[in-house]
What we know:
The protein is mostly helical. It is built from three helices and no strands. 45% of the residues lie in helices and 0% in strands.
Amino acid sequence: MPQQRMDDGFGQSAAQLQEPVAPSPRDLTYDEKKAAEAAFRGEPFNPAWSVAAATVYEGIVSAMCRMQVAALTELDAVPVAEACVTR
């Protein structure tokens, strides 16, 4: 039996109109775990780690910085200060 296609009138099927699906969760790699541990401990980033590990490290450090700023200023929404972003 042929599969019916639901069309929106503009040539797009219902499947194409759905919101993009977030990637499924995965386990962190060894260096991503090390980067996360270092970020939580306040240790420096190891440049030998991967780009993905740098993303993990940067995300944790940035979030922790925003939380500290929010706690000090008692604001609900604090924009990311450049001082929070490590390079």
